[in-house]
Design a protein that fits this description.
326 residues, mainly alpha, Hypothetical protein af1432, 3-stranded antiparallel β-sheet, two-stranded antiparallel sheet, 7 strands, binds fe (ii) ion
Length: 326
């Protein structure tokens, strides 16, 4: 059977590949799907938006060994929203290869965080974050090699939204390995870890993106982000006290050298200490406008040799083992 497609009147400028495996049967997409033909010809419209993707479509594509369709970059947002909405079905599909699933976890999480940081007070911020955390937590719990796979695709360029995903993934995995937490505690914690830097959305971008050393005044402003984050989330029924604590105290240290309160170690729960370790590790291993990234080995060495007094020794040891054998 022939694969039909129509010539496109106004061809897309830039195409983004969509793994066919991530298109759920009988779902209607709100973006056009294109087929890339051989020999550099114009892409053809394969499936117009608002028409369902069917079992037949999948079978025919498989018969032709077509593993990717494409979406116009101008419709990327609709595609990413589709992935987010179908995340549960995608992660639960036993036929889908692990690397596709981890890609979707990363891509849809990054999109979610981009939207959260653009409009942190939007009514559905917390609920979308919770849904993402719940599904990703279950995926990480069931697929024992998912963490190692996610590590491979982790972004080494720093953006607040990719940092949020990285810290969430490191935090939840460390908490699982450290033991002693119930699934519900871990999910609540995961939401706090994902949203730990949400207060940065209220910090002046010129301070966030500053290439040089911050002035004293700028640094004082930056240090407000944990409290601002709590202010954004406080009173939301979907966020519990443990998650709020993670947002407020993720820069506190066990030797009272952190901020904003320089509180006593006793006030820092194991989950807060876990998020602090994950946060520092990700900050060290990603490239920033003012510094290069260091390797995993180098970062762990710095944390062990130069920051040992600031961090929980047992949890740091578990983290080092976890990164050595992900
Ligand atoms: Fe932070
Ligand atoms: Fe952070």
């Amino acid at each position: 059977m022939e694969l039909k497609g129509e010539a496109v009147a106004s061809p897309p400028q830039q195409l983004i590949p969509v793994p066919v495996a991530c298109l759920r049967e009988e779902t209607v997409t709100s973006f056009n799907l294109y087929l890339q033909t051989r020999g550099g010809q114009q892409p053809v419209l394969y499936r117009e938006k608002h028409l369902p993707f069917t079992d037949d479509d999948r079978r025919r594509l498989e018969e032709h060994n077509i593993r990717h369709l494409y979406v116009d970059s101008r419709e990327e947002k609709a595609y990413l929203r589709y992935l987010e909405k179908n995340l549960g079905a995608i992660l639960g599909d036993p036929e889908l290869p692990l690397e596709h699933k981890t890609d979707v976890v990363y891509v849809s999480g990054r999109f979610l965080m981009r939207e959260v940081f653009a409009d942190p007070r939007a009514g559905d911020t917390v609920n979308r974050s919770k849904a993402y955390v719940q599904l990703t937590y279950e995926f990480l719990s069931q697929e024992k090699t998912a963490f190692a796979q996610l590590l491979r695709i982790t972004s080494y360029d720093y953006y607040t939204y990719t940092h949020s995903i990285n810290v969430f993934v490191f935090s939840i995995t460390l908490a699982q390995r450290a033991g002693a937490f119930s699934p519900q505690e871990l999910k609540d914690f995961g939401t706090g870890a994902l949203l730990h830097d949400i207060g940065k959305s209220l910090i002046d971008p010129s301070i966030l993106n500053c290439k040089g050393k911050l002035t004293l005044e700028q640094w004082e402003e930056m240090k407000r982000h944990p409290v601002l984050g709590c202010r954004i989330l406080d009173g939301h029924s979907g966020i519990n006290a443990a998650a709020l604590e993670v947002v407020r105290y993720h820069h506190e240290k066990v030797n009272r050298s952190g901020y904003p309160e320089q509180c006593d170690a006793k006030a820092l729960s194991p989950l807060i200490r876990i998020c602090t370790i994950a946060d520092i590790f990700d900050a060290l291993t990603t490239k920033r406008s003012y510094k290069d990234a260091v390797s995993t080995f180098e970062a762990l060495k710095i944390m062990k040799n130069e920051m040992a007094e600031q961090l929980d020794a047992d949890l740091l040891q578990t983290f080092i083992k976890m990164m050595g054998a992900p």
